[in-house]
Amino acid sequence: MQPVVIGKLQLKTPLLLAPIAGYCDLSFRLIARACGGVGLAVTDLLCPEGVLRENYRSMQLAATNDEDSPLSMQLYGGDVEKLCEAARWCEDHGADVVDINMGCPVDKITKRDGGSKLLCDPDRTVKMVERVAASLKRAPLTAKLRLGWDDTCIVAPQLARRLEEVGVAMITIHGRTAAMKFTGQARLDGIAQVVQAVQSIPVIGNGDIRSPRDAERMMKVTGCRGVMIGRAALGMPWIFRDTWSHLTTGTIPPEPTLDEKCQMMRQHFHNMIRYRSERAAIIEFRKRVSWYAKTMHPCGMLKEEMRLFESPAHFDDIIRRFLDWRGRGSSETSIDHHAAHSIAEVTAQ
Questions:
Q1: In this predicted structure, what is the pLDDT of residue 207?
Q2: What integer pLDDT is reported at residue 21 of this predicted model?
Q3: For residue 231, is pLDDT > 90?
Q4: Which domains does the chain have, with CATH numbers?
Q5: Within 10 A of 297 (CB to CB), how many other CB atoms are there?
C-alpha cells in the first residue's frame, strides 16, 4: 500500500474516522484512537460563524488535546470570507488538516449553501476553495464529496480534478449522491472514477464499510488509497485496529472481551464528563449505550437500566452488576426481570 500523504503530513494508517454528526466528539475520538489503527480523525461539522464567535456548541465540537492527533477540522458553508477566516482559526487551534464538507445531504446544511449543495455549482465552488487554500499558512486543505446532487448531476470526477489543481491535498468520496442520502449501496464504480480523475493526490473511499473485509474490497475494486469509516465505528471503535491488521497481516485480532468493552464504555463516559459536563454525559450516554450493546448480547439489563441512570456512581454500578450477571451465565429472561425490578427501585427513589 502507498502511504497516505496529505501535504507534508504522512498518516500512520490509511484509515480515517468519519465526521459523524452528533457522535464524533473528542470523548469518542479518544476511545477509537486508544483501540489503535486510526490514521486521521475528523471533527463533527463546524459552522464558520460559530467557530469565529467561539460559541459554546462550536467549541465543544472543535475541542481537542495532545492525544487527539492527527486531527482534521471540517467546515461547512458557502460564504468564502467566513470559510477563510474559520480555516485560519482551525489552523491556529489544533487542526493538522482543514476539510471542507461538500457531501452532507441534510437540509439544514444545504439550505446554507453548504454540504452537497456545493456540488451544484462547480465553478463557484472551485473559486471558493482556491481562496480557502490560499488563506492557510500550514495546514493542508482537503474536501469530502459525494458523487453528485443526483443521478443527473454526477460531478465528482471532474470536480475532484479541478480541486486538485487549485490546491486541495486529498479527496474523500462517499459513493452515493446527495439524493440517495444513506439509502441503497455505495457505488464503488463512482469512487473508482474519482480515483482515475486525479493526478497524484490520495483519494479516500467512504460508504458501507462495516468490516475489515469491506475496507479491503473497496480499496481493491476502486484503487482508493484508504477508507473512511463512520457508523460501524460507533459500536466497534476497534474496527480500525482490526482493519489495519487485516490489511497488513491478513489476520483479524480476537474481538475485545466483554470486560474490555465495558472498560471502553466507562472511559468514554468519563471522557464526556471531563470534556463536557456530568449532566451532558448522562444524557448522551443513555443514547450511546445502544451502539455498544450491538456487540454485547445478551444485554437487556444493560440497555434498560442505562435508560434511567442518574449519576456516575449509578453508571458504574450498572456496569458492575451487568458483568456479574454475565459471569454467572444467566438467561436473557432473568436479565429482563432483574432490569424491571431495578427500574422500579429507581422510579421509587
A1: 97
A2: 86
A3: yes
A4: 5-249 (3.20.20.70), 258-348 (no CATH)
A5: 10
The three cell numbers locating residue 33 = 484512537
Distant-in-sequence, close-in-space partners of 305: CB < 8 Å, separation ≥ 6: 318, 322, 339, 342, 343, 346
Residue 318's pLDDT is what?
A: 95
Catalytically active residues, by annotation: 104
Higher-scoring residue by pLDDT: 179, 1? 179
Angle at which helices 258-275 and 26-35 pack, to 10 degrees? Answer: 150
| pLDDT tens digits along 275-315 | 999 999 999 999 889 999 999 999 988 999 999 999 999 99
**Per-residue three-class SS string for the chain:** CCCCEECCEECCCCEEECCCCCCCCHHHHHHHHHHCCCCEEEEEEECHHHHHHCCHHHHHHHCCCCCCCCEEEEECCCCHHHHHHHHHHHHHCCCCEEEEEECCCCHHHHCCCCHHHHHHCHHHHHHHHHHHHHHCCCCCEEEEEECECCCCCECHHHHHHHHHHCCCCCEEEECCCCCCCCCCCCCHHHHHHHHHHCCCCCEEEECCCCCHHHHHHHHHHHCCCEEEECCHHHHCCCHHHHHHHHHHHCCCCCCCCHHHHHHHHHHHHHHHHHHCCHHHHHHHHHHHHHHHHCCCCCCHHHHHHHCCCCCHHHHHHHHHHHHHHHHHCCCHHHHHHHHHHHHHHHHHC
Does this model's pTM top 0.70? yes
CB 277: neighbour CB atoms within 10 A? 12
Lowest mean pLDDT among 100-109, 241-250, 320-329: 320-329
